Amino acid sequence: MLYINVQKSEAMEHVITINNNQLSFTPGQTILDVAADNNIYIPTLCHLKHASPTKTCRVCVVEMQGEDDLIEACATPAENGMIIHSESHRVIQERKQIIATLLNTGNHNCSIRNLDPQDWTQFQMNVHQADQGNPLCPVWGDCELQDLAYMYQVQTEAVDAVPCQYETERANPFIIRDFSRCILCGRCIKACNEIQVNNAIEFGYEGVDAKIIAGNDVTLKESECVFCGECLQACPVGALVPEQPYRHDRFIDTVKTRTTCSYCGVGCQMDIYAQNNRIVKIDGADDDLAPNYGSLCVKGRFGYDFVGSEHRLTTPMLRKNGELEPVSWDEAINFVATRFNEIKDQYGPDTMGVLTSARITNEDNYMSQKFARGVLKTNNVDHCARL
Amino acid sequence: MTNTIADIETADVIIVTGSNTTENHPVLSSFMKRATKRGAKLYVIEPRKIKLTEYATKWLRQEPGRDISWINGMMRVILKEDLHDKAFIEKRTENFEALKEAVEPYTPEFVESITGIKADDLIEVAREFAKADAATLCYCMGITQHICGTDNVKSLANLSMLCGHLGKPGGGVNPLRGQNNVQGACDMGGLPNVFTAYQKVDDDKARNSYEQAWDITGLSGTPGLPVTEMIDKAYKGEFKSLFIIGENPLVSDPDLNHARKAMEKLELMVVQDIFLTETAQIADVVLPSLCFAEKNGTFTNSERRIQRVRKAVEPPEGPWEDWKIITAIASKMGVPMDYEGPEQIFEEIRQVTPSYRGVTWERIEHLGIHWPCPETSHEGTPILHTMQFTRGKGLFHAISHVIPAETPDEEYPYILTTGRILYHYHTGTMTMKTSGLNMLAPECFVEISSNDAQKLNLEDGSMVDVSSRRGTIQAKVEVSPKAVDGTVFIPFHFASAAANTLTNAKLDPTAKIPEFKVCAIKLEQPATA
Ligand code: SF4
Ligand code: SF4
């Protein structure tokens, strides 16, 4: 009995109320953490999981009973007895305001800004003009700001976009930096400095000149950047986009497959996105999933062109008159089997060897050694891992 | 690895040696870098001033190939200052007295004279390592690719055991595996002396159970040859055929001229790969296979976690899966093998592999499991040796240092050390198909210090001839702050200027790993510059 009482009173000390739900929490958790654990949605833009609060966007504001100002859920630790409203009228008004401001200060030419359903043509024209003839934003349909605008039904006034003073950077092969769409949330900075700890980018300049800068405002290529793409994966809008032009095909079905990176021994979990049987993007899997918790490096994220490469071998080949010539599988298998048997009979199994691989799967490796031991009857099997 | 990757972030002290972690295991290096942000001490013990030294509490610079000396030196400091974990040593280890005796000569001053590491630095790191609640040792090929590679590894184990840092979170001895499935290839018996899960081929019991499981008789009980010895035998004409699956030894092997001649003497060379690699080009038969994104299966990562590989795209028409090619050849040779697919093969693996027995594809659908996992109710083993070592008690090894097989002399006055760079992988067959990676790292380079460049009158970006006793290559000079006077670094990825033309094929007598990390070279202006 006593035991139960202690349990109860201890648990009682860590309870907050969100939207009339009494929720227990672990000390150290923020309001946002508690909400997330309990499937209560609080929108965020600058917040990055596993990093310290950035506190730039304020979109996560909530109302706390007894507190005059709205507070940021991402940066406020849960305290016993707090009573929180995450979707009150006041909260929603504030969020609408924040979203509208973000939309208006950048080149967000999705159908959100200036949307006038009566004048579609004019809208299209504006879009083209603002984008120097380019079609819609490359992440249209895959943008957290756009999602929020829809969710909170933000209709911005017909405000002209402020032309961006910084030119889009395309000086490296992987990451496009389009400053005109940057909302300065700083999530990329957190990703770079706190998750990957590459310390390549930071906030630069003040006020209307504010910009995410690499080094002392050089291109990524000239900076400490190692092209891990963590920032790209973190960017909630279309400011950091991959150079790979897949987004032009954004209306084509994309198939996502979870798999393991095939480069180094970390074995990062990744999501491969394919369109028309071509890999168009690779992202780190789930940020709560070991071993990489959502991170990848440059090889894992961008080094996939070999998969569909035109240089791939497609047919077995046999050396005839000094040249490798294409043959059928039947002929190749027959030849190899016959020759292996002949050599085995003539010289003995221990003059034969199999080099298996540190790159192929366990299943394939198992078959290689089974082949050496069970078919050739030799233990001459090794791989090049030591090399 | 004895511990997990995530575990590194929880260590109080991290020693990294023989690993250029930010370039070779970039995502793993983040765990180290984040640990330092939290206040952990990071010591990097490396011949080159690699990127990670910028995050380090201290960088200790040893002459290449002199690792046993500094490790013994640290242990001596720890013993002299009475900082060793007596309870752990008493309960969990044996042969402690021999160790004590072996490290006695390694005074900090003696170590400094061999390794170049300052006596004070050695003492500081030894103290911090011993006093930490949990301290981890991470290493890679810079430790293993030496004639004394096995002894290097044993020495690190000595150091960790001495301080009781094994078998607990944040501790351990952690080899970082270079290639994605090195761990798996070893676990699966892709080694000359063992079946799966390191069951010895000369153990009658293991062999019998294999014969039964496979329904094949007459398995050989004689351990086979490691790759380096197969090549040597082939060179002498005593080896007749090689079946090479997914490897490119003609760029990755040491002393390439020798390896090429050896392969040319084979009666039959079959290469199975996804590209026409340098090795495939001289094969008698080339068999096209599938890449990781086109097939299902499993990889086992550095932390012994068995993870799923899934088909993300349809393969091109023509190539077959590796296992399918192998079973087709086997069946044709009169040993019928019939599998529906990789999952059925995995089921067979489980039957014959005690440490994998509890893992099923279903169980690792979302999250991989660390072996050993002996049964399906077992959660896997993230940290090894928590209760006892594989052999029961941990054995201290009394080890003395040796000098690299080849040291600089008048004719070849520089030390060459080889390795990898961030933007490429192994022999480049995969990464060099991505133009962006080639743009960032287009070609081979010879990394030297500015002092050496000046001395040799070499300009950054100019070409230089690099020669060893075994061959010559030409590549671009890269004057770099990473280089230390007297030591030159060349990445081995590039076939057109293959660093392994220069390297020494001298082997570690136990692990048969060549000494890639040290050989003597000279640098000269190209004759036709
Ligand atoms: S790619 Fe990686 S290193 Fe470069 S800025 Fe982005 S997060 Fe930083
Ligand atoms: S993404 Fe990079 S760090 Fe991760 S497994 Fe692949 S190569 Fe290794």
Describe the structure.
The complex is a heterodimer of chains A (387) and B (529). With 387 residues, chain A is an alpha+beta fold. Chain A folds into 4 domains: 2-87, Roll (Ubiquitin-like (UB roll)), CATH 3.10.20.740; 164-243, Alpha-Beta Plaits (2-Layer Sandwich), CATH 3.30.70; 255-312, ADC-like domains (N-terminal domain of TfIIb); 317-383, no CATH class. Chain A contains 10 helices and 16 strands. Chain A has a 5-stranded mixed β-sheet, with helices on both faces. Chain A has a 3-stranded antiparallel β-sheet with strand order 10-11-12. The longest helix of chain A has 19 residues, at 329-347. Chain B has 529 residues and is α/β, with parallel strands linked by helices. Among the domains of chain B are: 5-176, Dimethylsulfoxide Reductase, domain 2; 414-524, Barwin-like endoglucanases, CATH 2.40.40.20. Chain B contains 20 helices and 19 strands. In chain B, strands 15-17-16-19-14-18 form a 6-stranded mixed β-sheet. In chain B, a hairpin with a 4-residue loop joins strand 10 (297-300) and strand 11. At the A-B interface, strand 10, strand 11, helix 8, strand 13 and helix 9 of A face helix 3, helix 11, helix 13, strand 7 and strand 8 of B. The complex binds iron/sulfur cluster (SF4) (2 copies). One iron/sulfur cluster (SF4) binds next to helix 6 and helix 7 of chain A.
Write the layout of secondary structure elements.
The complex is a heterodimer of chains A (387) and B (529).
Chain A: H1 2-12, E1 15-18, E2 21-24, H2 31-37, E3 61-64, E4 71-72, E5 83-85, H3 89-104, H4 120-130, H5 144-151, E6 175-177, H6 187-195, E7 201-204, E8 211-214, H7 230-234, E9 240-242, E10 255-260, E11 269-275, E12 278-284, H8 298-302, E13 317-320, E14 323-326, H9 329-347, E15 352-356, H10 362-376, E16 381-383
Parallel strand pairs in A: 1-5, 15-16
Antiparallel strand pairs in A: 1-2, 3-4, 3-5, 6-9, 7-8, 10-11, 11-12, 13-14
Chain B: H1 5-8, E1 13-17, H2 21-24, H3 26-37, E2 41-45, E3 58-60, H4 67-80, H5 86-92, E4 93-94, H6 96-103, H7 108-115, H8 119-131, E5 135-139, H9 141-144, H10 149-162, E6 173-175, H11 182-187, H12 204-214, H13 227-235, E7 241-245, H14 249-252, H15 256-264, E8 268-273, H16 278-281, E9 285-288, E10 297-300, E11 305-309, H17 322-332, H18 342-352, E12 369-370, E13 394-395, E14 414-419, H19 435-440, E15 445-448, H20 450-456, E16 463-468, E17 471-479, E18 487-491, E19 519-524
Parallel strand pairs in B: 1-2, 1-5, 2-3, 4-13, 5-6, 7-8, 8-9, 14-18, 15-17
Antiparallel strand pairs in B: 10-11, 11-12, 14-19, 16-17, 16-19
Helix pairs in contact in B: 4-7, 4-8, 4-10, 7-8, 13-15
The structure holds iron/sulfur cluster (2 copies).
One iron/sulfur cluster binds next to helix 6 and helix 7 of chain A.
